[in-house]
Design brief:
Helices cover 50% and strands 12% of the residues. It is built from 24 helices and 16 strands. Helix 22 packs antiparallel against helix 23 and helix 23 runs antiparallel to helix 24.
Length: 638
Amino acid sequence: MLISDFTVSYGKSTRQLFSQMLSNVISKAYPDADIPMEKITASISGQKQAHGDISSSISFMLAKKVGKAPKDIAKSVAEAIEARSPIMKVENENGYINAYFDVKEYSKNVLAEILEKEKEGASSNLGSGKKALVEFPSVNPSKPWHIGHLRNALLGDSIANIMERCGYKVERDDYIEDLGLQIAESIWGYMNLSDTPDKKFDQWLGEQYVKVNKLMKEKDISGEINGILKNMENLDTKESKLAREVSEKCVDAQYQTAFNYGISHDLRIWESDIVRAKLLEAAIDVGMKKGVLHKESEGKYAGCIVVDLEKMKEVEMDFKNPAEDTKVLIRSNGTATYSAKDLAFHMWKFGLLKDEFHYSATDRKQRNGKQLFTTAEKGNEGSFGNTDIAVNVIGSAQRYSQLILKALFSLMGYPEQAKNIMHVAYGEVALESGSLSGRSGGWIGEGKSFTADSLMDEAKNKVREKVAESSRKTKGDIDDNTANVIAAGAIKFEFLKIAPEKILTFSWDKALDFGGNSGPYCMYMYTRAGRIIEKAGIGIPSPEKVDYSGVDSSAEFGLIKLLSESSDILEKACAEYRPNVITDYLIDVSSSFSKFYETSPVLNSGKLLDARVTLVAATMSVIKDMLRLLGIDVVDRM
């Protein structure tokens, strides 16, 4: 069997073969049990060497259907299966059906596949033919990114990377709310406070914003701010034009932060351009014509355009016990609520409204080499939106509003689109030394700035100290690029290794632990592998010509089996929108590699040298590839 024969990864094709073997025997021996193939496949898992290379627990499911003991079923099924390469034998043990691989053949094909596909890396056709629009981080243009915003951005960037690798055509969008109350408060400060920008603009504007909020507690300026807010919504006013100008300066500064973390986008979408394109009016018109939205004529909602939340219970199963009985989309004074704007924006995302945007190219150079576009007052037509899946990376606190959005889509006759609005909810973020709050200025902190910029600066310093400690160098011996790459990798890995919905408390000790469970640890294993290959002095052998007959069945073959799972891990991370699936796998691979080179010498391995160097090269390839999905680079020396 040649690598070119595979339509899926070799590891997956072997598991599929085992599933088919089981299915063939079960369908003949127990025809009335009606066990579908997907149940058989789901019953298969990797096992320790003593209990098979892979194992199925399907006998326990069958036992309930046919009234026999699992161990008796496992025995009869295992005995009836005819081994087929690369599965060398099948045995039963305590109700489990265990398959053992032909070590030589399996090793050859796994390592050859990894090295032949090194440039492409792990892959999947899970999203083939589909488009995914990933929206992140959508930070208000009134402050610098704090570390909560950074978690949003890193999740969005890595999810986009993962989906792209799974065959989706991915569009990375950033929605910028330049007409909200926070912007009106910032504009009041810009117009009335005497300060002039003397630092990175988003940092300066954020400090102004904090000053305005402190002043509001001492002096009633709400009338002036509300006047600015109202005038901002008329796009011909000086307040509106100033808001856009200031917001653009702030976002440009925020994108300096994004680019420092290697984060890229395809499109910036401005709220003021949504107003200009009249998408809101079009969306409300559709909702009114379909009878989902209506205008109240009396009571406390008189003059408002609303939706009855009782109707939503009928179409959205998760929408239970709403906090209100009516949801307002357009207030009586004609201003739109968040839900109304979100409805219009998502109807555009799915191509349900005519694209009236104008698009203009920016002069920003991005890490991924792609051109960054922005919606604009004047510009050209574009091919944005019109997606199959909308992935929204938004804090857990927004779950209610996301349910309202999905319910509105279902009520308006778009159930398929409603199913494909994916809310990636993430929990709060804090440093071990404190919490964050944009309005109170908690991101500034007590003598310390908890911004994404300051986090990176501090990480670089700590990396220099840590590497100098371990390598007997001085801090000045570590070049800027190495410090930058390790610092960014440490931060990204620490932020992404926690499941999105969980609260994240960032720890320097954990993030910079070169001994395990961190980005630098995985990066170090990559450089360690590179040094081993360098010292071996034979280059990387052609995998198909290597003799794998001496590969043992413990740490060495365990690592090979683990490497064979990379494409499966990619698919799992994509299907669940969880980059932490990748970080968990990277830690496993790095730990297994460490165990391998401690127990299986490479440089003094005699006739096994070619096989072991090939395995080291494949491990390097997988570690680099998985880190790349997280947006993390590698260095040759640490």
